Amino acid sequence: MQTEESKNKINVWLPLLLAVMMLGGMLVGAKLQPPAHKTKIVFENSDGPTQSIGQGRVEELIRYIQAKYVDTINADKLVESAITTLFKDLDPHSLYMSADQVKKANEQLEGSFVGIGVEYLLVKDTIVILNLIDGGPALEAGLQKGDKIVGAKSQFDNDKDSQESDIISKLRGAAGSKVNLTILRKGENQPITKEVTRNRIVVSSVDVHYMLNDNTGYIKLNKFSANTFTDFMDALKDLIDEAEMKNLVFDLRQNGGGYLHEAIKVLNQIFPEKDQKLVYTIGKNVKKEEFFSAGRNVFDIEKICVLIDENSASASEIVAGAIQDWDRGLIIGRRSYGKGLVQEQFDLKDGSAVRLTVARYYTPAGRLIQRDYEEKEEYDSYLKKRIDSGEFTNNDQIEISDTSKFYTANGRQVYAGGGITPDVYIPYDSLLLDNYYIELNSILTRFAYHYSEGNDILMSEEEYINEFEFDDTAIDQLESFYADLNDDAVTSSSLNNSIKMALKNDLKARIGKQLYSDLVFYKILHKDDPVIKEALNAQKTYNQLTHKQ
Asked: What whole-number distance in Å separates Cα of residue 273 and Cα of residue 295?
């Protein structure tokens, strides 16, 4: 059902942009180095003696509540509520996480999880396999794209058929455990059963890499996990050894950050010179730490353009900031998120953890990128503020919160506070802020599956990328599909040609992903991407901003 909130373009758009950020920059942070496990934490009281936190007032209050309160209470829930309240007085990136949240966040950081290795879509309570991970258990067991998983039974299940709501949870389990899946497959008259052995699935930090032209390669990095440097180097090796890449377009858009040390290792490959300062950190209770280039790069990269946007955060900003400060390359896109705080994780006995901000990081020129967080509510709604100010569509509306003067190696003035301001600004297409476009776009993955089920597209990848086009009939079908999903939806005749073209391209990309590969998906999206077009233009004239006169 379509609510009043969903009719407001800001309220609809913000969750889409925040999704990656919540898993990256805001939750993960720029540095996570879990210390050895401690069962007791003590601190020096200003009055003198050492005091155990476990014997403090919070524990005493909870004992009173348990013993005297009129109703039965859940002590664990009360403790978590007290901890959450405690963190409200800290910065926005210090937080408490339950054991379940720690597990999920660690999977993001470690770049792996235990499962069967499929990407799926839930269609009317049925799990449809959209893609299978290369080398994953599902592929090895003979599952295919388009298979519908209608049943799942593990070793210790009873004989009762699994409900659809249980199937998703059974796709994951302990490594080495087995699950029997009941599959409906196109062309098969009867359901088939496949036994799949769950295993650890390694997820690459690199979404895609390929050559944009004869000498310029492209790498899209989605996070800075434990495997990022290896993934990055594998992509570089492929582009340089196989395609003879000279220049690089490095896409950090929607990259919310991750491990600081992985960002440093990536920068070490980008900076061939030794002893160039890459970043430094300063904290009240930790010593100043400086990171320098090692001068041992494996591959030679000539020109580099880094793509950023409003959701490029923490480790992404460290990379972009170092490249900008040293005039090593061009930063293209829109102003980044603005997170210059370093977190450290402390694990608790019950599997939960706290992530505390222990330091601030600074770019080589001395810039602190962190936005002001005095007003928490305003901090959390930063995207709305940027949209309302017109910053997304007008470079002149970028608010410079810190007017201190900082300069790059070649003397260009750059700014601190509020994120990395790009060298070349690319506005967001205001037409794509249309509320109806956003809602149609949000169901495109489901519609793409629906469309491809009823329409056979028989052609090669290259033919599909370069020749296949949708007409307005597909958009009419999309609107009807949307209306069926939303009883009170009102279809609109106000879709102008630009929005229709954008929807057709998005639909083509999603169907290309389902029928062919992620590479097809990105190649289609990138054909009309103004940021990539500008990066390619900049490679041709690459110069006045980065080369010494």
From this structure: 5
Sign of CA dihedral 10, 12, 18, 20: negative
Give the contacts of 304 (CB within 8 A, at least 6 positions apart).
247, 248, 249, 250, 270, 323, 328, 329, 330
Q: What is the DSSP letter of 368?
A: B
Predicted local distance difference test score (pLDDT) of residue 155: 63
pLDDT the model gives residue 509 = 97
Please identify every stretch of the chain with a pLDDT value under 50, giving residue numbers as ranges. 1-28, 30-51, 54, 158-162, 164, 548-549
Closest CA to 339 of 292, 385, 371: 371
Residue type, 38: K
Q: How far apart are CA 318 and CA 502, in angstroms?
A: 32
Beta 304-308 vs 330-333: how paired, if at all? parallel
pLDDT, position 488: 62
**pLDDT above 70 covers what percent of the chain?**
85
pLDDT digits (tens, 9 = 90+) for 355-382: 999 999 999 999 999 998 888 778 888 8
Vertex 152: Cα angle to 149 and 156 (nearest 5): 170
CATH 2.30.42.10 residue ranges in the chain? 112-202
Q: Which two tokens stand for residue 358?
A: 């222990």
pLDDT in tens, 120-146: 998 877 899 999 998 899 999 999 999
Could you list the active site residues?
314, 325, 339
Residue closest to 303 by CA, chosen among 212, 416, 224, 408:
212
Cβ neighbors of 523 (< 8 A, separation 6 or more) are 210, 465, 512
Evaluated on CA atoms 46, 49, 50, 55, the torsion sign reads negative
Q: Which CATH architecture has domain 206-428?
A: Alpha-Beta Complex (3.90)
At the top level of CATH, which class does the domain 112-202 belong to?
A: mainly beta
Residues of the chain with CATH 3.90.226.10: 206-428
What is the per-residue pLDDT for 157? 54
**Rounded Cα gap, residues 145 and 139, in angstroms:** 10
What per-residue confidence (pLDDT) applies to 289? Answer: 95
Task: Report the distance separating Cα 248 and Cα 305, nearest Å.
Answer: 6
**Residue 469 — left, alpha, or beta (φ > 0 → left; ψ -120 to 50 → alpha)?**
beta
